[in-house]
Design a protein that fits this description.
alpha/beta, 5-stranded parallel sheet, binds zinc ion
């Protein structure tokens, strides 16, 4: 289900309309038992409050394109959600994100490109592509000090666990 969530960057203040839709998406996700893909921009406190009040830990999802401090990461993890890292991790100024990543357990981590946005280094400034996931994985494997093959195996396991998919339904290289 998603993307859903709250965005106070594009709509600078609290929006009753956004909140209303978010509540509806949470309810459908729980009914269908499908993970939520959360878009959070300057709004993580409100999102976490709502998820908690709606008992969303019973059907957890992903905080996509994560770019917050460890305090927020910890609350997301405590709720049972996964944290997805995008090309931002490769940006020169993402110093705090890199230190947060080091503390996120591997079994709750996912990787994404958020294509066509947030193109990773060394292609920053150009249009992003799904195939650039390699640059993000390489960067994360260096930061987490884990072999890239091992990392991609763990990420795939996380993906199949969260989406409750059988491995033989999808062929990944
Ligand atoms: Zn988003």
């Amino acid at each position: 289900m998603g993307e859903t969530g709250l965005d106070y960057f594009h709509e600078k203040k609290k929006s009753h309309f956004q909140e209303e839709l978010f509540y509806q998406h949470i309810s459908v996700s729980k009914d269908l038992q499908k993970p939520l893909i959360i878009h959070s921009r300057n709004s993580s406190q409100d999102i976490l409050k709502i998820l908690k009040s709606e008992n969303s830990g019973l059907c957890p999802g992903i905080f996509h394109s994560f770019n917050e401090n460890y305090e927020v990461a910890k609350k997301i993890l405590d709720l049972g959600f996964y944290i997805s890292i995008s090309g931002m991790i490769t940006f020169k100024n993402s110093i705090s994100l890199r230190s947060v990543l080091k503390k996120i357990p591997l079994n709750r981590l996912l990787l994404e490109t958020d294509s066509p946005y947030l193109t990773p280094v060394p292609h920053r400034g150009k249009k992003n592509k799904p195939s650039y996931i390699n640059y993000i994985a390489k960067h994360v494997s260096n930061l987490k000090k884990i072999d890239i093959e091992k990392l991609s195996h763990i990420i795939k396991q996380n993906f199949f666990r969260l989406f409750k998919l059988k491995k033989n339904l999808i062929i990944l290289n």
